[in-house]
Amino acid sequence: FFPAAATGIVSLIAGFLLDRKILNYKSSIVIGVLMFIFGTYLQSRLDLDMGKTQIVLFLLPWGAGMGFFFPALSQISLGNFQGELLRHASALQNLLRLVGGSVGTAISTYILVSSQSVHLVRIGEKISPYSPQVVNILQKIKQFFYYSRSTPEVLLDGKAKAILISLAQKFSYWHSFGDAFFFATICGVLTLIPTLLIDNKTLGGVES
After folding, report:
1. CB burial string 2-33: b at 16+ within 10 A, e below
2. Helix, strand or coil for residue 24?
3. φ/ψ bin of 23: left (φ > 0), alpha (ψ from -120 to 50), beta (otherwise)
4. Confidence at residue 207, expressed as pLDDT on a 0 to 100 scale
5. Tell me, what's the pLDDT at 203?
């Protein structure tokens, strides 16, 4: 909800600034892409220790960045068309947006799924059942189940190990989310390169 709200509010502000010539199209796109890159980088740093408020704050730059570049991109792509050509151009723009979103979602999902097993193996390599930290954690879990859940002693060891494995899986899944957002950050950086090469003179007809 909050990133979408940020996109809507910033889109209105960016549209107003573009109409009043306070902001040109190239600047709006560059600002939006930079904010998008910053937002995706922040999301790649999320972890399980963060609270809801901090997570929401990390998502806001991502949504605000899209609010900056969507109005300018729409105006640039549709501003020079009228009548039947405008309808065709609008349909083509929506199609390309859907295709791009589908491809990006597919790649991100692949990264999310494939990297999870890699992170789980790495976490498993670092966990030794004989280390004092692991023994201490297992002992605390056993005490919790024994005193708070009245679990029979024969089941304590299995439940404690199951909880530890579940935590390792959650951490590996969270790290895979970071990989997916890091991929989005790289895509944002690659998008910034052609954006910086846009010549304001070529946009003169659109802006007029």
Report:
1. ebeebbeebbeebbebbeeeebbbbebbbbbb
2. coil
3. beta
4. 52
5. 55
With a cut of 70, list the residues of the chain below it in pLDDT. Answer: 1, 199-208
Q: Which two tokens stand for residue 42?
A: 């922040």
- Separation of alpha carbons 157 and 26, rounded Å: 62
Q: pTM of the prediction?
A: 0.69
CA–CA–CA angle 205, 75, 103 (5° rounding): 130
Choose among 39, 45, 49, 50: nearest CA to 2.
39
CA distances in angstroms from 79 to 15, 86, 198, listed in the order given: 14, 8, 16
| pLDDT score of 200 | 60
Query: Do residues 31 and 66 touch, judged by C-beta distance below 8 A?
Result: no
CA angle 5, 7, 9 (to 5 degrees): 70
Closest CA to 177 of 38, 43, 61, 39: 43
Rounded Cα gap, residues 28 and 67, in angstroms:
9
